[in-house]
Amino acid sequence: MHVNKVHHVTTINSVAEDFAVDEDWLAEVANEMDIEDGYIWVYGIGEDGVQAFTDDGIDNLRDLVRMRKDAPRWLKHSD
Question: What whole-number distance in Å separates Cα of residue 38 and Cα of residue 53?
């Protein structure tokens, strides 16, 4: 039997504060992630939803942030 071991998530505004980066910029970086990477959306009553991350997701996002800062064009989509 598969048991989901995720017992909490952290919202993007909290992660942005911890990383000392702009939340909108971080959201752009996070859009490169998939659910398998620890990236989810959390919805509530009357809310549009908020991006959130598992602990593994935060680690994956930290790696993406590092890559984006080292090579800013690497993750950008062409228009």
Answer: 5
